[in-house]
Write a structure and sequence with these properties.
alpha/beta, 19 helices, 10-stranded mixed sheet, 3 domains, polyphosphate kinase like, single chain, Endonuclease, Chain A, 27 strands
């Protein structure tokens, strides 16, 4: 038995659990559709980042050997074996979904099933509304093949003219929605855009004979690396690196139907790929298009009803309430408006002199950004750390950074080799009764300051006026602005400075307690656990007799034993919060924050874990852990073979429903 579970296999098992949600009893039709789309989107990102990284390693002079002794080439082969099996399962569910949709009068049809009138109407639509968007090319077989954009759907043709064979290529426009309505809107009948275009190829290539046509899609390596050229500013580095994604190595090619040997060889030669990267789907490509149906207003009746989110604060001054005690916010069950109200009150408070915030992923129309600009316009000293290296949000964050600067906000950027992942808001207020006349009010959280994800991701935050925590947060912003290293924090665990050592110390304390015949207990909830040093430390604790109870949603490298239990919760909301609990002789030290137990979180990111000092706030956090432990609807247990087994019980208890009911 291996000492560690393989990282990539563990992630694939997580995505398998996402797909398996489709089969849950009484699952709404909208949720079935949503989770197929999420599964597919997850898989795309996995290939762009993880498989892309493995491909880079395979071409490097210094091959990294994985912890289960696989080299990158072997790793990619193992991934592809697993993914082919998962594709088959995904498309079985997709075919079932189309039948279920059809039963509700929502039909996704093939060209061959259309009536003559429907075809005439669609061809007219094609010529008037779609044709102007198209760029279609015919080229000799030995011509330079055009660059195919990442994640785009394309049509490839073999053409014949004057006894000479040509290639034809069309990229399906990304600016047109893929679901094309047929007939009147009430019919809810659709055809996919690529099929409509494919049915009009004779119109596009009217001087050629079409020998063969096929629809394909590529996924490229999108794992960015930044060079060490100090002469170039960070924004320029990131902007230049984003462009590289357009021509990254192809790591997966999906093709809609079985191609001829000749077309297949053309694809392999032009795309510089092998059979390993090619997936013949024999079905529709890129099932993330289902999200377009999910977002239709008329489709709301097939989705969950909205629930009443709870208010974190009562009427009156938020700052005044935080001064009296700490407050926990638990999204999406609590209303994200509490964050916006906190910033708005700080902007309007004449005693507030400064507001500082870290931003990692924000929405495209972010009210957080508007609130910060509003505060700056009202004369507050506003500083924002905007992480322009946040993967796939680089361009959005660069645009926001430029806008914030134009509005007079001080924008700071992380050091090149570090990502700032900590979720922090700092409000500095003049108060005569405080030490040195200054009082800090902070929010520290586990999730992004993004109102959209706050409605779908489960996250936790704490509002606090604790002076020592405030001083630590100030230290973090000073480091980010000036590079001044943090020598000693008073309360926070801060990566890359002290978090690893403090985790070691906390685990050692539990080990020593057990050796003295006392209670040793560790509970933790996180997204990923893969740091080898931390896994070894938890093994050491378990062998000494410390009970270790883990909730790990995604990647998990630790193997359970008689003292280590592991469960994963995958359901309606994405479990995203991080909680760490140590019994600590009855003191019950409890932390929340932004970091998982991965080497990157300890060593290559700026992270913050906050101790929960307020007794009532701590009870609330511990109750969350207890409720999640009781869940038997969304839960899976991990066994020693690396397989996740669904937790089943005659008396179902759904933690998500419990929290939605407003119970705390």
């Amino acid at each position: 038995m291996n000492k560690y579970f393989n990282r990539e296999s563990s992630w694939l098992e997580f995505n398998r659990r996402v797909l398996e949600i489709y089969d849950r009893k009484n699952l709404l039709l909208g949720e079935k559709l949503k989770f197929i789309s999420i599964f597919y989107d997850n898989l795309d990102e996995f290939y762009m980042v993880r498989v892309g990284s493995l491909w880079d390693q395979s071409k490097s002079d210094q091959l990294r050997i994985d912890k289960i002794a696989l080299n990158p080439e072997e790793e990619i082969d193992l991934i592809n074996v697993n993914v082919r099996e998962m594709y088959e399962e995904c498309y079985r569910k997709y075919d079932d979904l189309k039948n279920l949709l059809s039963n509700q009068g929502i039909k996704i049809v093939d060209v061959a099933t259309l009536t003559e009138k429907e075809m005439v109407d669609l061809n007219e639509l094609f010529k008037n509304k779609i044709f102007p968007y198209l760029t279609f090319r015919a080229m000799k077989l030995d011509s330079h093949f055009p660059l195919i954009k990442n994640k785009t759907i394309n049509i490839l043709l073999r053409l014949l003219k004057d006894n000479t064979e040509y290639l034809g290529e069309i990229q399906i426009p990304e600016t047109i929605k893929r679901i094309v309505p047929i007939g009147n809107k009430k019919e809810r009948k659709f055809i996919l855009l690529e099929q409509l275009i494919s049915s009009n190829l004779n119109f596009l290539f009217d001087s050629y004979q079409i020998l063969e046509k096929n629809i394909f899609r590529i996924i490229r390596n999108a794992d960015l690396n930044y060079d060490d050229d100090d002469a170039e500013d960070l924004l320029t580095k990131v902007e230049r690196s984003i462009k590289k994604r357009s021509w990254g190595q192809i790591v997966r090619l999906e093709i809609a139907s079985e191609p001829s040997k000749k077309l297949l060889n053309i694809l392999k030669e032009q795309m510089k790929i092998t059979d390993r990267e090619i997936y013949v789907i024999n079905n529709d490509l890129d099932l993330t298009y289902l999200d377009q149906i999910y977002k239709k207003k008329w489709f709301n009746k097939y989705q969950h009803d909205e629930f009443q989110q709870q208010k974190v604060f009562i009427e009156g001054s938020i700052i005044g309430q935080i001064k009296e005690k700490d407050y926990i916010c638990h999204f999406p069950y609590d209303d994200f408006q509490c964050i916006l109200d906190f910033l708005e009150e700080a902007a309007n408070d004449i005693k507030v002199v400064a507001i500082k915030q870290t931003l990692y992923r924000v929405s495209k129309d972010s009210p957080i950004i508007e609130a910060l600009i509003n505060a700056s316009n009202k004369g507050k000293n506003v500083t924002v750390l905007l992480e322009v290296k946040a993967r796939f949000d680089e361009a959005n964050n660069i645009a926001w950074a430029k806008r914030l600067e134009k509005a007079g906000v001080q924008v700071i950027l992380s050091p090149l080799k570090l990502k700032t992942h900590a979720k922090l808001i700092l409000v500095v207020r003049k108060e005569k009764d405080s030490i040195e006349g200054i009082q800090t009010y902070c929010h520290l959280g586990t999730g992004n300051y993004n109102e959209n994800t706050a409605n779908n991701y489960e996250d936790i935050g704490v509002f606090t006026a604790n002076r020592h925590i405030g001083e630590d947060v100030i230290q973090i912003f000073n480091f980010l602005a000036s590079g001044k290293e943090i020598f000693k924090s008073k309360e926070l665990l801060i990566s890359p400075f002290n978090s690893r050592q403090i985790f070691h110390d906390l685990i050692d304390f539990e080990i020593n307690e057990v050796l003295q015949g006392k209670t040793g207990l560790i509970k933790a909830k996180m997204n990923s656990l893969i740091d080898q040093e931390m896994i070894d430390k938890l093994y050491e604790a378990s062998h000494a007799g410390v009970k270790v109870k883990l909730i790990v949603r995604g990647i998990c490298g630790i193997v359970p034993n008689e003292n280590i239990s592991i469960k994963s919760i995958v359901g309606r909301f994405l479990e995203h919060s991080r909680i760490y609990y140590f019994y600590h002789g009855g003191e019950e030290k409890t932390f929340i924050g932004s970091m998982d137990l991965m080497d990157r979180n300890f060593d290559r990111r700026v992270e913050a874990l906050c101790p929960i000092k307020d007794s009532n706030a701590k009870k609330e956090i511990l109750n969350i852990l207890d409720i999640l432990d009781m869940d038997n609807v969304n839960s899976y247990t991990l066994n020693q073979e690396g397989k996740y087994l669904r937790v089943l019980n005659k008396d179902p208890f759904d933690a998500h429903k419990y929290f939605m009911n407003g119970d705390k």
